[in-house]
Amino acid sequence: MQPTLAPLKLKKREDRRLRAGHLWIFSNEVDIQATPLVDLAPGQDVEIHSADGTPIATAYVNPGSLICARVISRDLKYRLDRSLIKHRLNIALSLRERLFAQPFYRLCFGESDGLPGLVVDRYGDVLVVQINTAGMEQHRDDLIDALNSVIKPAVIVFKNDGSMRKLEGLETYVETVVGDERPSVEISENGVRFMVPILDGQKTGWFYDQYDNRTNLWRYVSGARVLDVFSYIGAWGVQAAVAGASEVMCVDASAVALDRVHENAQLNAVDERVSTLQGDAFEALSELRASREQFDVVIVDPPAFIKRRKDKKKGLQAYSRINQLAIRLLSRDGLLVSASCSSHLSRDDLGGLLHQSARHIDRDLTILQQGHQAADHPIHPAIPETEYLKSYLCRVLPR
After folding, report:
1. DSSP 8-state secondary structure symbol assigned to residue 30
2. How far is CA 114 from CA 43, 75, 141, 179, 379, in A?
């Protein structure tokens, strides 16, 4: 018989969001007089009660975090353990195996796959795992056992060095917990080969969320001169070259990332058509304009400029400025791909910002297509935060 869980009681009417399907509980929603948060340990399993004392869900807590609890199940008999993790990973795997012919995808996307605080990316027989919450960290060994059972990988890497862990009061580390250490792995996307750094790369090494949008680009770049801004290791740019671009320039602040652009270009025999420019993106685009460079296609895929709501004003200015710089570099009838991975920037905000950026420099912009995160990053309809990636493919003409 399972031990009784400590209760976490909500204030009156604060259960409405949970009953509508959301999985987060904020600290200001808890009746701390009845159930003091300070009495609970980070990562502890609890039973969520409505204000009238009715049990409504199981969850884990972190009293030191703004999101102080995350729901595990609305069926009170289920708690986070090896069996539940394995079950939900199997469900997640079944979706990915329907979607992808090769084992290169995000296997688990946190709350959308019923495993809050967990991200798992698959690179064939290598898994890269991010644990972002104290509750999931408590079940690290259960997670390793479940991954070994479901996938049987050769290597499991814990890439636990993200900023979310600091907010949860967790230490950061990178550790190979199964198999021999591999600094990089090879993947294939649209038939293009890439060496992906999994130990010292950005986040989990690769950005699977842009898969559909990168695939869509293929039809637009044949014979084009392409500029890939914030290129990282060349996911957009190298594919553009393989798709028939006459010339590709990749811009990134990291010399190490640009070395990997050249490595990936060579891997696909397009290195003669791929060049790189190291530097701050804003400065690099200004320099290219001063040199009267022009491109048929410009791709702007920056990191999140708005990480917190209070950063929105400054972030909007950054998005506007980088897109204006990009538009100025377009040829007379050019295409702009502009993306944002900030959940605090809405799709409408980005579209309006692009329109205003074009008008500001006397250009006409029309939207040809809108892009979203790939299906291995499913959106939970009750949790708007899970819908974070948006992109626009735009045609830009002189007025």
Report:
1. B
2. 16, 13, 18, 27, 12
β-pairing verdict for 104-109 and 118-123: antiparallel
Closest Cα partner for 395 from 347, 354, 345, 352? 354
CA distance 318 to 320: 5
Q: What is the number of domains present in the chain?
A: 3
Per-residue pLDDT at 306 exceeds 70 = yes
CA–CA gap between residue 14 and residue 21 (Å, rounded) = 13
Domain residues for the domain of 211 are: 185-398
Predicted TM-score of the model (pTM): 0.95
Residue 3 has pLDDT above 80, yes or no: no
Predicted local confidence at residue 371, as pLDDT: 97
Q: Which element (helix H / strand E) includes 52?
A: none
- Which position among 68, 108, 250, 341 bears the catalytic label? 341
Query: Using one digit for the tens of pLDDT, what is the confidence trace for 358-381?
Result: 999 999 999 999 999 999 999 999
1: in domain: no
Instruction: Determine the average pLDDT of the residues in 279-293.
Output: 97
Q: What are phi and psi of 396, to 5 degrees?
A: -120, 125
pLDDT in tens, 209-226: 999 999 999 999 999 999
User: 68 an active-site residue?
Assistant: no
pLDDT at 1: 58
Phi, psi torsion values for 249, nearest 5 degrees: -120, 125
Among 135, 159, 182, the domain-final residue is: 182
* HEC string for 317-362: HHHHHHHHHHHHCEEEEEEEEEEECCCCCCHHHHHHHHHHHHHHCC
Paired strand residues for 118: 131
Instruction: Give the residue among 339, 357, 335 at the shortest CA–CA distance from 347.
Output: 339
What percentage of the chain exceeds 90 in pLDDT? 95
Let me know whether 208 and 319 are in one domain: yes
Whether residues 337 and 394 share a domain: the answer is yes
Q: Cα separation of 69 and 339, whole Å?
A: 31
Report how far Cα 393 is from the mean position of its chain's Cα atoms: 20
